[in-house]
Amino acid sequence: MSLSNFPHWAQIRVIAGKEFHDRIRNRWVLAVSIVFAAFTLALSYFGAAAQGAVGFQGIEPLIASLVSLTIYLLPLIALILGFDALVGERERGTLNLLLSYPINRVELLLGKYVGLAAALTCATLAGFGVAGVAIVLRAPNADWYQYVGFVISAVLLGWVFLSLAVSASVFCASRTSASGVAIALWFFFVLVYDLLLLGALVLTGGAALGPMFPLLLMLNPADIFRILNIFGPGDLHTMFGLISVFPATLAEPFFLGPVMLLWIVAPLGLAAWRFNR
């Protein structure tokens, strides 16, 4: 890549700022924040209703419920947010106009991603932060730090699926096909992957997949998110079945955090390669 094609932060920041302010103006951040806050507060109060109890029952049951909710909701929101980031510009006829400005394709791609990621992050932090205030007031410091760890991992999960959505937006020729790919990605990583892995374990008796099992789990960012939250100060791993057999020695944030970052960078790198062609 020549120096003229090397991405510059100033151009990326301008594009990201426009993308972010567009989301603020159409109240997208506010709507998603309200959704996250409402679900989190409801789970914190009614999460143990099936056991005949209401009210805050501790951080561990709350995080267990929030992990399951987040895995279903946050990837879907991220995919919906980013699936038309570039293919939408192409269909509206504004992509060539954007590229006529003194920016290159990588700067446009990264600017779009950074702006959307900033909007998604604000919505996530605002939504979970409202419930976090209640938890801080009612829970000890250890619980507070565990909740913060959950929120950080949720932000990373959103960034991963937003990266996948932007990559799909580059590869697809229309918004219709991009939306179909986004839905397929959600079904695969959130619903299908673990079922396939569980079926393979049952069919092989676990012998063939045993040594490869941790690697196979890391091929799904939703599973990495689960692992980051169940091997914490609390004893949550018994609540998650298949994930609970992941080696505790590998379930360290300093190891899994970079794996999540790789899940963010790899789709963006692939999208940049394709977009430059």
Automatic annotation (TrEMBL):
Protein's UniProt keywords contain Membrane: yes
A Pfam family recorded for this sequence: ABC2_membrane_2
Segments crossing the lipid bilayer: 28-50, 62-87, 108-135, 147-171, 183-209, 254-273
Key words, A-Z: Membrane, Transmembrane, Transmembrane helix
Protein name in the entry: ABC transporter permease
